[in-house]
Amino acid sequence: MSNQFFADIPTIRYEGPDSHNELAYRFYDKDRVVMGKRMEDHLRFAACFWHTFCWPGSDVFGGGTFNRPWHRGANDAAAAHEKRETAFEFFTKLDIPFYCFHDVDVMADAQSVSEHRSHFAEAVDHLEALQGTSGRRLLWGTANLFSHPRFAAGAATSPDPEVYAFAAMQVRDALEATHRLGGANYVLWGGREGYETLANTNLGREMDNFGRFLAMVVEHKHKIGFDGTILIEPKPHEPTKHQYDFDTATVYGFLKRYGLENEVCVNIEANHATLGGHTFEHELAMASALGIFGSIDANRGDHQNGWDTDQFPNSAEEMTLAMLEVLRAGGFTNGGFNFDAKVRRQSVDAADLFYGHVGGIDTVARGLLNAAAIIEDGRIDQIRSERYAGWDNDLGKKIGTLDLGGIADLAEKEALNPKHRSGQQERIENLVNRFC
Amino acid sequence: MSNQFFADIPTIRYEGPDSHNELAYRFYDKDRVVMGKRMEDHLRFAACFWHTFCWPGSDVFGGGTFNRPWHRGANDAAAAHEKRETAFEFFTKLDIPFYCFHDVDVMADAQSVSEHRSHFAEAVDHLEALQGTSGRRLLWGTANLFSHPRFAAGAATSPDPEVYAFAAMQVRDALEATHRLGGANYVLWGGREGYETLANTNLGREMDNFGRFLAMVVEHKHKIGFDGTILIEPKPHEPTKHQYDFDTATVYGFLKRYGLENEVCVNIEANHATLGGHTFEHELAMASALGIFGSIDANRGDHQNGWDTDQFPNSAEEMTLAMLEVLRAGGFTNGGFNFDAKVRRQSVDAADLFYGHVGGIDTVARGLLNAAAIIEDGRIDQIRSERYAGWDNDLGKKIGTLDLGGIADLAEKEALNPKHRSGQQERIENLVNRFC
Amino acid sequence: MSNQFFADIPTIRYEGPDSHNELAYRFYDKDRVVMGKRMEDHLRFAACFWHTFCWPGSDVFGGGTFNRPWHRGANDAAAAHEKRETAFEFFTKLDIPFYCFHDVDVMADAQSVSEHRSHFAEAVDHLEALQGTSGRRLLWGTANLFSHPRFAAGAATSPDPEVYAFAAMQVRDALEATHRLGGANYVLWGGREGYETLANTNLGREMDNFGRFLAMVVEHKHKIGFDGTILIEPKPHEPTKHQYDFDTATVYGFLKRYGLENEVCVNIEANHATLGGHTFEHELAMASALGIFGSIDANRGDHQNGWDTDQFPNSAEEMTLAMLEVLRAGGFTNGGFNFDAKVRRQSVDAADLFYGHVGGIDTVARGLLNAAAIIEDGRIDQIRSERYAGWDNDLGKKIGTLDLGGIADLAEKEALNPKHRSGQQERIENLVNRFC
Amino acid sequence: MSNQFFADIPTIRYEGPDSHNELAYRFYDKDRVVMGKRMEDHLRFAACFWHTFCWPGSDVFGGGTFNRPWHRGANDAAAAHEKRETAFEFFTKLDIPFYCFHDVDVMADAQSVSEHRSHFAEAVDHLEALQGTSGRRLLWGTANLFSHPRFAAGAATSPDPEVYAFAAMQVRDALEATHRLGGANYVLWGGREGYETLANTNLGREMDNFGRFLAMVVEHKHKIGFDGTILIEPKPHEPTKHQYDFDTATVYGFLKRYGLENEVCVNIEANHATLGGHTFEHELAMASALGIFGSIDANRGDHQNGWDTDQFPNSAEEMTLAMLEVLRAGGFTNGGFNFDAKVRRQSVDAADLFYGHVGGIDTVARGLLNAAAIIEDGRIDQIRSERYAGWDNDLGKKIGTLDLGGIADLAEKEALNPKHRSGQQERIENLVNRFC
């Protein structure tokens, strides 16, 4: 029985900040109402298959350390079955409502299109059953278009149309499975949709192929009646030198170019934000301002290392700033917090998977509580609002009615000589810290 | 007489690769025809006022080292006059066709709107005269909306509408001056159009103000009959923590958002590209693919330092890759190569200004010659083209006619099992090196 | 009277976490005893002259925004006097025990060696008097060997021996002044002791000159009977491309090379650590392990920006990790926490200087309280200690007595096949967060 | 027969710059004498086993793409034998004198100490035979102490003494094998000798264990009469968050701390230099100045990506600066240029391995020719030398005889007022470019 794997771990429950139990929630109290909504409904936590159940603990310099039972032989039907069972045991013991997967995460290995389709279908049947018995739901599904050697040069941006077609098959099936499983969203992360060198790359052609692919996905979504959200996940690079979905602003331009800005939103990952030269909260605020905020991949990077470390979030301070943007954006519609995070390669025990997620969940929960307190306090929003007050006064309104020449004439006529006023950054930072 | 300043420096002439003269061009032969065009017409070199005539050699940790005569007292009418005279002596001795300026670079300091207008007008009169006598032309003009303390929180994105109006006055005047002086382009670099902290920033409001400002500039351009190109210069950060015009892809999205993608192009700076996590050639290729390639600020950064070092380009290898993209984009229309580059703070001699520009100009010229040779050779373009050949064959064409489901069905019916083919990156890199 | 400048600001007092007063300490309770020592004695806070009283709010892209009264004219004797008075008013109102300065920060501008000596002497007389009336003490003094144009190519590493001699004069006088003022340390930050390009640099010669300079400073310290600590402040680059005192490990090697490892310690700056690819706590732990931990320059950088932003520390989480290393190192001997931090260029109000320092002081105080709680709790130290327990057992001890061949033979004889045990990183991170 | 693998590839020969043969050397003419030495003797090229014969083309996001015959089953005795045969075919066809290996690269997989020893011994016998028939020599050997899960927490710095002992066994055997095979050097790269989090790490204890390990290696080298050089290879991070051998200056301090600075040198890798915030030439110049320059791992990184890309060097410009430092250091003694470089994951053809190495070898050869020309020209060395001329004059010499007070008095007595002279960086950069 696969559920032997976590036999020693109890279901994780809320016990409050003073609990000495290291396998309990101290801040995530799912039924607590914050700003009119239960925490569970605010945060919509999901755990993922790939890092937690598929990755063996390998890295570029060494092999797998984890020694999970389902990794000891080939990834055949029995191993895939055991993995799915164990995963749902995990989701249930964490007591979080959602999970996420790539097609290949949940199925036995396949050598052909037909094997892919039949193995995946078998997996989806099982997932549906597991959802039923466990009460867990699907936050989003996706297709893995980057791990198999056929995708070495991309999928929707591959120079080879056969690869493009193979990818279309996987996405069609994964989208339909997501629909059938009641998924709230469908994600596309452009793993190798980018380039290694411009010297062999036709940038315009690849982007056009990618745009058309995305448009077809949107069309298919409507055709099958899927009412979840299609999400693009930005990342600047890795594995490719340059990834077309560099960051939120880039994705927005891409969507506008192909007329998809009302159809597709972004799934923002903290570690991808920092790799791209942004803070996590920047990407959230930008997505919100551009009207494409969708969902979140919760993790953190290492500020001294230049690759995707996918560590569990553990800074309540940083999460407070992020949650502030989430709340300002009105919170999630279909989105949620998926832990695209992995335990360190040295963290080989089953319990480590729980420590990672419990810590991450509590960090996000603290962020929510802090951010809600900041909003309810109101001082920071008021300082920010007063900073722009001039735009709501006579001059600001008048400027809204004039053209460039008119405004320039006004500046001259009024002999404007604006003095700089303090931006009060240090004061505001202190105020934020009052809530951390 | 200001022209004493460069009295010891001869006019720079082409003398060929074997010349031992360190103040001669070895590769820039302005009348040499490359791919059907004179080098001068291909490259359209400009030198700039700010780094070369305004900056005193200061940095954050120390004062000016340069001791130029026009910096010894206040920047009054006489000093500004001397600076302009000296600059045109310089442009002429370099024998390049163009120059660039910010309003405040060329004028005496002003304390009010009216002083700004009158001092600037006086400067423009003089520039017009100097253009006439020297035969030099204006590649682009711009307004400095970031140095004066009033712009500490931005100009078009300032929270204070008075600042916005002051900026409108400067831009109106600078745009009209550019028109009068026959400028080929007008540039907006968003120096402080960004934020220091999200905590005091209304991102959406600032971007909307910025979008409207830009739309008004475009409208004014048409109103006055200026037929040059309006250019935005991307930069990811510095001086601000985050700059709205992060990179070319971001600017494209911004233009699309405000309906300006057919009105505005980008002025791409090499050092800004690398600060943003891109190669210089990436930004050029992206601008070309998106249809917004305008002009270039030639310089280089330091790969180990995280700020804008604005050094002169000195890598013919890197410039070859950049020029390849310029040639593929069809070359410049209104744009050109402006040296937004400065001699090092230790390079205090007048001759150093010439060494910097002569080296930079020859580097760009070598890049052009190498890139033209690559294109004329044809092998690299052929390898690239063959890589995508499948898209021009039956399968590729058929995919163009099907929807997602149709393509997926095709993959199944044909039992596609694509094998990865070599991307030949090492071979192509060797081929490129044959031309460097 | 200069003390008009902060007339509106009260002396900052401890009022506890629940205080609503934004100009009070919520965590820094100077007389509170933590692990057997008063907080004031643990933390030994200092404020600095340069960022707070000398910098006008300029940056590379724009002029000063601050408009301080003593900056309105030349930096003559009267202005310098007013600056010193105002600074001591500030130190006193912050109620912190220490301050720090560079020679040129506190004196009127000088045009020659003799002026430098007389202006500086005048300033030192005044500082001594101000110390007496205010009860404030000197944490450290230093000489500015990087701002004047004469130091453009370095001071102790200058190619010009005249510059070296000028620097020796400044350091001799600054060291003697520090001694006279009862300073606890003397600092050398190698502002331009590095290079811009290897092409014009004799690395070995410059390092030898630098080593000898430092040895002479140590010799002079002993000669005059100064019993404070000589400190080197590591920084990887900026303003120079490469700075010889790159990081703590580099400085250690440098000290060993010139036989100074028992004479000189490091002054570790948080922002310099991160610019060098390290965490702040790494540099502290490394300095402690190498026996050269001296003092701290408290600030923070911006993880997305590649230059020294010198912001006030505001992360209690990060400071907790740093304070853990400080406590493990046994705390300060002569060192202390100097705020080498500056308000943002937009923070133009006098009050902003207080917000910055109050927030920074409370952040450090929280870090101390959290770190002390972690140590008193003991769990984390125990986990760490158990991880190495094998080294205290038979095998570990035996290894200590064998040579390479002996150990290899042992591995074979015992047929060792070690299994990896969990490093428990996620669990430990959760434990740390219990104290934040 | 394994030599079927490269059957289509001819032995690579020098054909000169004008050759159209893409599989010929255009610059590497092994018998050409440069500055009194044959190019082969200057450059001492080696190819490596790991990237070229062991790595299957996998990365963190996807599986192997290369499909080499010896990877199709288990890495047993037959596969290892075929790999060794193929590798020597490759070294021979490249016509380079040297190769390099880790123990596990060349042997069948082992499950125990005794298997490790016997499988490795078998491999060494074969290598010895292959050296004899091919005439290829061993530049250096090393032990892989980072890939097996047992080394997840380090080897010489492991918290587990069993792991330390296992590592000692591997190093003892690899060192003795290197000696037997006539290797010129023995390398230690501290793959996981670092930490993931300070929270579970005893920095001082780990460094002391590491220091003792290295001392034992040196002792064993003398014991067995190995007269090659022991080399440490610096790298700042990856796979660990922080690696103890961060860079050359750090390694120097480490060697000094454990009294090994006259016993151990550094093996400098270009990509590790740039990951550590340095140029390649910086690390070479630093190693030379500190007297620990040993050997080179030739490759390049990607300036926009923050991980070790290990690409083949392809910039003759950058290599010229590096070779300048190598020549200034007097060239190699035991060291050489080992290609620690891998073809891209998309470069799946056997020919790609040749394109990569041929391009890299020619790049290094061009660097040598350019650097030798610069030195023979003499101008740059002269400019540099003149820059320091003051130190050879009266003042410079006098300073050498005085103490700090004496120099300070001199500055005052002579009323020194040094003026900054130009560092001529732009002029020198132009001169360098004359030779590229």
UniProtKB/TrEMBL annotation, chains A, B, C, D:
Instruction: List positions binding Mg(2+) 2.
Output: E269, H272, D308, D310
**Any GO BP annotation:** D-xylose metabolic process
Keyword match Transmembrane helix: no
Q: Name one GO molecular function term.
A: magnesium ion binding
**Record has Transmembrane helix as a keyword:** no
What is this enzyme's EC?
A: 5.3.1.5
The active site consists of H102, D105
Q: How is the cofactor bound?
A: Binds 2 magnesium ions per subunit.
- Record keywords, A-Z: Carbohydrate metabolism, Cytoplasm, Isomerase, Magnesium, Metal-binding, Xylose metabolism
Give the protein's cofactors.
Mg(2+)
GO CC terms on record? cytoplasm
Instruction: Give the UniProt subcellular location, in the record's own words.
Output: Cytoplasm
Q: Which InterPro entries match?
A: Xyl_isomerase-like_sf (IPR036237), Xylose_isom_bac (IPR013452), Xylose_isomerase (IPR001998)
* Catalyzed reactions per annotation: alpha-D-xylose = alpha-D-xylulofuranose
Q: How does it assemble?
A: Homotetramer.
Per its record, how is this protein called by name?
Xylose isomerase
The beginning of the lineage is: Bacteria, Pseudomonadati, Pseudomonadota, Alphaproteobacteria, Sphingomonadales
